[in-house]
Design a protein that fits this description.
Elements (H helix, E strand, L loop, with lengths): L19 E6 L8 H10 L3 E6 L9 H8 L15 H7 L3 E7 L1 H9 L5 H8 L4 E5 L3 H5 L1 H12 L3 E2 L3 E4 L5 E5 L3 H13 L13 E7 L3 E4 L2 E3 L6 H12 L3 E7 L9 E6 L2 H11 L5 E4 L6 E3 L20 E3 L3 H7 L7 E8 L3 H12 L3 E6 L10 E8 L4 E8 H15 L2
Parallel strand pairs: 1-2, 1-3, 3-4, 4-5, 8-11, 8-13, 11-12, 13-16, 16-17
Antiparallel strand pairs: 6-7, 9-10, 14-15, 17-18, 18-19
Length: 417
């Protein structure tokens, strides 16, 4: 938020203390889903104070919040006045997340109103603040709501894009509360960044990320593919969203849940990925191609299943080259300041092959890692060296894929105009 003090001015928790999270709940039907978010926060070791609005208590009662959090629920500005709760709760928090955030709550937060304990808490918080909106599509798309969201984002708050799906009654559209697991994942990523998370350095940026592995059909039941799980690409998308970016995720044959606040475009083949990437990259500030794209595809597609014939060897499968999507994106950028990042999965001479690929593709950064049956594919960890076209190299030690994703975005953010 504007006017935040430096992180070290906030009252610090003891190093061994669990992170202190304030869960604000405003008065929408999606309040019941916040119970699942609360359960995930408490079970992962966070100390959670629930601050529901009076309207929220019409949907989920105080006893439920107290039982799930294991703490007293803060509902009134005038309770325990000697402890100054309208100031202390926000001051002492490591993270404030409001889920659901109604149109009314977003408007009050954007205009600095403070007529209850939750809005007072938002004004006194000097930690990262996350809003997970939930409302009908017309309310979300109204110019007043969009302006309020833009104001909050300019001040450094993370406003997660709502999901598309079933709303109250028979209505369907954009405005659904993102899945609680995805909201929790965003909160976890923000807390992991520590004091760096008080700055949403990708706010107002559009980034495109590809993930997964393309599949090139041979016949109706067979394809040429690869072992990519998509986890690194999804980590890149989720961390970018947690840093304030508008994210388009091009997902190729993955089975992972959609990250909160990310627009997902599903593709299958390299040709489909190329079409989607060129379209999404037209106005993007950065494009990160983390998907494993097949270099070749069968020259012909058999409309029926290819049968084996006893006593005969199978006919050779003729292959043709797939388009080089990364090189095309680097050569024909949407605008002069666009940053293009590639990935190189190598099995030998990793750095030498990576530097040669960086020069050949013409991208700004290339993330180079060694892969194999027990390395990277399908796992939750990774290690890499990020090569820059300016001659730099940034080693990223073995660790969670989130850490590598943050390292990539650190370098991208530093290069953006």
């Amino acid at each position: 938020m504007d006017g935040r003090p430096e992180p070290e001015q906030r009252e610090a928790a003891h190093p061994s203390s669990p992170p202190r999270v304030v869960l604000g709940v405003s008065g929408g039907i999606a309040a019941y889903k916040a119970c699942e978010l609360l359960r995930r926060l408490t079970e992962s070791g966070h100390r959670v104070t629930v601050v529901p609005t009076a309207a929220a208590l019409h949907f989920v009662g105080e006893a439920t919040w107290a039982a799930l959090s294991g703490n007293r629920v803060a509902t009134e500005t005038w309770e325990s006045v000697h402890e100054v709760p309208h100031v202390r709760i926000g001051q002492q928090a490591d993270l404030v997340v409001v889920a659901p955030a109604t149109a009314d709550l977003l408007a009050k937060a954007a205009h600095g109103l403070a007529d209850d304990l939750l809005t007072n808490t938002l004004l006194t918080a000097r930690c990262p603040v996350v809003f997970a909106p939930a409302m009908h599509t017309e309310m979300w798309e109204h110019p007043a709501t969009q302006e309020n969201v833009a104001t909050l984002r300019r001040r450094g708050a993370l406003v997660i894009e709502p999901a598309v799906g079933r709303l109250t009654g028979v209505d369907t559209g954009k405005g659904r509360l993102p899945d609680p697991a995805a909201i929790f994942d965003s909160c976890r990523r923000i807390l992991a960044r520590g004091d760096r998370a008080t700055v949403t350095d990708l706010a107002d940026r559009h980034v495109v990320v590809s993930a997964g592995g393309t599949r090139e059909p041979l016949d109706p039941v067979r394809f040429l593919g690869n072992r990519s799980s998509g986890k690194q690409g999804y980590a890149l998308a989720a961390t970018a969203a947690a840093r304030g970016a508008r994210v388009t995720l091009l997902a190729a044959n993955t089975e992972l849940p959609d990250p909160a606040g990310v627009d997902v475009v599903r593709v299958a083949t390299a040709v489909q990925l190329r079409e989607a990437a060129l379209k999404a990259a037209a106005d993007a500030d950065a494009v990160v191609m983390a998907a494993a794209v097949a270099d070749f595809r069968p020259a012909e597609y058999a409309t029926g299943k290819i049968k084996k014939v006893e006593g005969q060897e199978p006919a050779p499968v003729a292959l043709v080259r797939n388009p080089d999507i990364l090189a095309e994106l680097a050569a024909h950028r949407g605008h002069p300041g666009q940053i293009v990042v590639g990935f190189a999965a190598e099995t030998d001479q990793v750095l030498a092959n990576g530097r040669a690929k960086l020069a050949r593709k013409g991208c700004d950064l290339l993330v180079v890692n060694e892969v194999g049956e027990r390395k990277v594919f399908g796992g939750d960890t990774n290690e890499a060296v990020i090569l820059g076209a300016d001659g730099t190299d940034t080693p990223v030690p073995y660790g969670p894929k989130d850490a590598l994703a943050d390292a990539v975005w650190d370098l991208v953010a530093a290069r953006l105009p």
